[in-house]
TrEMBL record:
Protein name per the record: Adenosine kinase
Record PANTHER family: ADENOSINE KINASE
Alphabetized UniProt keyword annotations: ATP-binding, Kinase, Magnesium, Nucleotide-binding, Nucleus, Purine salvage, Transferase
Database matches in PROSITE patterns: PFKB_KINASES_2
Domain Carbohydrate kinase PfkB: residue ranges: 45-358
Pathway(s) of this molecule: Purine metabolism; AMP biosynthesis via salvage pathway; AMP from adenosine: step 1/1
Leader sequence residues: none
Top-rank EC class of the record's enzyme: transferase
Reaction(s) catalysed by this chain's protein: adenosine + ATP = AMP + ADP + H(+)
A GO molecular-function descriptor: adenosine kinase activity
Species the sequence originates in: Salmo trutta (Brown trout)
Length: 364
């Protein structure tokens, strides 16, 4: 059998064995709910706002006009987004039934965009419990697409107003956290509410449940390093892509930073609180092999072939990979099956505009 079958499986949850497929709220996600506004732009547009063709940044004052400008483009598309929300939606889509396997917490405004996010979450059968406030409008993310590249600029607005005391700590909400057995939070949320992440991460660790985190973007490892490293000891599964892994390695002072397998190994061996589970590190590399630590080994998994002409929009591919992975994880499948599902979901998403999907998955 595969090399990890003989090892104890660190990612498996046994306390719900057998009934895994039927549990509502088994998967918990918390993050920045954003409405994606995507449009094809040219190099001049990127230069005008000082954007790199492929990047993920937070909006500054100089970008404010950009949101209005992109909204006026001829072929602008609006999609419910936000990294963690995308992932839990994809997980729910992969699982299909029961509905509301996935719970999502995040903050929105009391406005039209907020209503769209609510409606889209409902259509995706995700149990979205938004914290709604009136101070800030619902957050948006401008996806500036040039060819195969996408430059993402997030204007967090309301998403930045998530409040632990006014939402996470409330009994009715915290009960949903306790109900879950797998937790996923994108690193982006470290800029918003690290104290909320820590509370959830500690709960998972103390109850031997699975807590996963995504490196999300190079700027997180660079500028939110302290918050990230406070959470790292509770991380059972760490996700990221090759660029984020390289930045993380540099910031952590790992030598030989160009070898992704070595970076995965070192990230795996960072201090960890719950000793019952060995950390699993999973790094995707676009069309190249996905790298994952299994026990003491680092294994490569090849992605599904796709014709370059079939790629419509790579925006959301990373979120989709995580969503597919989580859908199998929550059903207590092997790591190999989790990765295969991740590759399948990403392959579906990149053939479509935005992080959208057909009615049903065609995944065995």
């Amino acid at each position: 059998g595969p090399p990890w079958e003989s090892n104890p499986q660190p990612w498996r949850c046994t306390h719900h064995a057998g009934v895994a497929n039927t549990i509502e709220n088994a998967l918990f996600g918390m993050g920045n709910p954003l409405l994606d506004i995507s449009a094809v732009v040219d190099k001049d547009f990127l230069d005008k706002y000082g954007l790199k063709p492929n990047d993920q940044i937070l909006a500054e004052d100089k970008h404010k006009a950009m949101f209005d400008e992109i909204a006026k483009k001829s072929k602008v598309e609006y999609h419910a987004g936000g990294s963690t929300q995308n992932s839990v939606k994809i997980a729910q889509w992969m699982i299909q039934t029961p509905h509301k396997v996935a719970t999502f917490f995040g903050c929105i405004g009391t406005d039209h965009f907020g209503e769209i996010l609510k409606q889209k979450a409902e259509e995706a059968h995700v149990d979205a419990r938004y914290y709604q406030q009136t101070q800030e409008p619902t957050g948006t993310c401008a996806a500036c697409i040039t060819g195969d590249n996408r430059s993402l600029v997030a204007n967090l607005a309301a998403a930045n107003c998530y409040n632990k005391e006014k939402h996470l700590d409330l009994d009715g909400n915290w009960e949903l956290v306790e109900k879950a057995k797998v937790y996923y939070i994108a690193g982006f949320f470290l800029t918003v509410s690290p104290e909320s992440i820590l509370k959830v991460a500690k709960h998972a660790s103390e109850n031997n449940k699975i807590f996963s985190l995504n490196l999300s973007a190079p700027f997180i490892s660079q500028f939110f390093k302290e918050a990230m490293m406070k959470v790292m000891p509770y991380v059972d599964i760490l996700f990221g892509n090759e660029t984020e892994a390289a930045t993380f390695a540099k910031e952590q002072g790992f030598e030989e930073t160009d070898d992704i397998a070595e970076i995965a190994r070192r990230a795996q061996s960072l201090p960890k609180v719950n000793k019952k589970r060995q950390r699993v590190v999973v790094f995707t590399q676009g069309k190249d092999d996905t790298v994952a630590t299994i026990g003491e080994k680092v294994t490569m998994f090849s992605v599904l072939d796709i014709d370059q002409n079939d790629i419509v929009d790579t925006n959301g591919a990373g979120d989709a990979f995580v969503g597919g992975f989580l859908s199998e994880l929550v059903q207590e499948r092997t790591l190999e099956e989790c990765i295969r599902a991740g590759h399948y979901a990403a392959n579906v998403i990149i053939r479509r505009a935005g992080c959208t999907f057909p009615e049903k998955p065609d995944f065995p």
